[in-house]
Amino acid sequence: MAVDRRFVLKGMVLGGAAGLVLSRAVPVLGNVPPSHGDIRPTLALVGSGAVESAFLEGAAAAAGTHLRVRQLERDLDFMLDFERQLRAGPMRLIGLLDDASAGLLLDLARSAGARVQWLGQHTVEGGSTRHRVLNTDLAEGCSRQLSRQLHACGAGFTLYEERQGSAAPSRQLAAPAHRGAHTAQWAAGVGYLLAALGSRPTGVQPILAQSAPASGSFVSFSIES
Amino acid sequence: MSEEKSGVLPRGVTQEQFDAAVNKFRVLLGEENVLVKAEQLLPYNKIMMSVENATHAPSAALTATTVEQVQGIVKICNQHRIPIWTISTGRNFGYGSAAPVQRGQVILDLKKMNKIIKIDPEMCTALVEPGVTFQQLYDYIQENNLPLMLSFSAPSAIAGPLGNTMDRGVGYTPYGEHFMMQCGMEVVLANGDVYRTGMGGVKGSNTWQIFKWGYGPTLDGMFTQSNYGITTKMGFWLMPKPPVFKPFEVIFENEEDIVEIVDLLRPLRMSGTIPNSVVIASTLWEAGSAHLRRSNYLTEPGHTPDSVIKQMQKDTGMGAWNLYAALYGTQEQVDANWKIVSDAFKKLGKGRIVTQEEAGHKQPFKYRAELMSGVPNLQEFGLYNWRGGGGSMWFAPVSEARGSECKKQATLAKRILHKYGLDYVAEFIVAPRDMHHVIDVLYNRSDAEETKRADACFNELLDEFEKEGYAVYRVNTRFQERVARSYGPVKRDLEHAIKRALDPNNILAPGRSGIDLDTYQKS
Prior knowledge:
The structure holds 2 protein chains of 2 kinds. Chain A is an alpha/beta fold. Chain A has 6 helices and 9 strands. Chain A is globular and about 45 Å long. In chain B, a hairpin with a 5-residue loop joins strand 8 and strand 9 (194-196). The mean pLDDT of chain B is 96. Chain B is of the alpha+beta class. In chain B, 33% of the residues lie in helices and 19% in strands. At the A-B interface, helix 3, helix 4, strand 5, strand 6 and strand 7 of A face helix 2 of B.
């Protein structure tokens, strides 16, 4: 980690920041020229649970009717079938899964020759969240955007970003908790960002109703074949 | 154009040299087989080790489809001093995934060389290319109704025999020591020569997959866990499918039982009464494999206390140690051996025997029985959800198959892991005389502090085990140089002398197993 590039949000002016981020569509997400605001057809692969539902809400807000959803099954046939679909392509896939399933899926994506723009490791624990992201230039700006969303959620967080192939040092963003219990809002933010990656979303990122804190470990990804 | 450059270069290679090499690779392999964009390389850079991904970032990845292309790649690498890191299927999860040992190395991905060249159902042999997976072989055997059985490691379906054997991996059947079952390799050397081991050099020979040794020095072993060549074909022996297969589990309540378990098993393994690579899994290995999560029991940081593990045992019926073995053969053979085995456990007076009939489809019995009978599955990936967070490093010291030694290693490992707030998640894989004591050091990579702890823990495991005369048989790419030092200077000098002779330009995976002409200094 490059300490000299550490960007600490601790001192961020809070006035209106949350409302601003959560109620406004993001202009362009990612380092790709927008093509008339089109969202590409996207398949979202998720497990079951409140956090995954939040991810889907966020993704749906960005992709609208372009989003199809598939529920993860953990058996061998499902995984091998998925690899075949990736090979057959073209396919744009985003998702939020458990560590084991995501580890498998990412490896199958590699052997299928797919491209990966974003790989995020997320942990929710003790009222705060940790995020470790490996991404590409195509996701430029997404981590900073996510950090603003996380800050707006009110829960403390750390976000560590590595850029694949970049000579630049990794970046860490962090902020302490500043209000109430967190929700799964971070997952909605990730879903929104990934569904909108490289395009100009027309929807508005949803603000989730308060829910009981959800803990656990999750992996987000954006894959194209 | 930024899209065409990964931003990472091999050590000591200028951008101009690299670009020149990439252009030649494109001519040789075609544009689609030369990957330099970040989004193409990112999936090769997903690591589970306790360092930043950048430390193991590749500069490019190549896919080849023929031996001639591999020869061409080697030629270009020699011209431009480009180091290459070869993978077959790249499923080396806790031992380093697909990422290269050093930042900037060009990955040579042989996934497209995936032909099953030959399976001989009478001689029970196979000859395959590097990209062949166990699932491919399984499907072939099923579709052709061949009376053969595979042996594979736990990632089974998606891993392959060549890569696993070249890394000296093990499986769970009577053919579980995979390198022992290997017979004949084809290797592209750094000078472009194609060398066939054993009988492979004899024109017209039909015994390449039959007789290992050939004539004169037998060199197969030196191409495993090394960087002396690129293996493009490998032969191996397949086990005839037995008419009867009887898997069973024996559940032991207490950690201290490991001494008696191992001392009881050793003669049964040596005599061949129990012929397969037996597994003795700890509670937490068992729990992860059954897709339990630590958070079901505990949300506090640190290691899982023994009291919680005892509660898990009580709730689930798992033991402190869970032994999985199987009998193979005719009904008469299995019946006779079952009597010997079950009598031995009854005489011990400890351990609850569970048969397949009693276990039904319950996990983890089901996947263990499948692994012992050559049926692929992905069940054991559940381990990665035990703590969550994507960190996994396999610490795998070798032990004598002697109860007191296993207990000593287990106690030492547990003490060190707990000191660093991590869990002892382990299994012993039992050969007649040795044990592979495989410990999955699981940690959360999204937590920088925990990642540092895991790194320190792994170092201390290596150091403390070495003080007791123990060493690992295999390790992830983060620690290969460190582990090479455990085996002494004479071995390292010899390995580098061989490297200088075979690969003077140091183009083949420098750093693999600590062999690197650029950095090694003779003691």
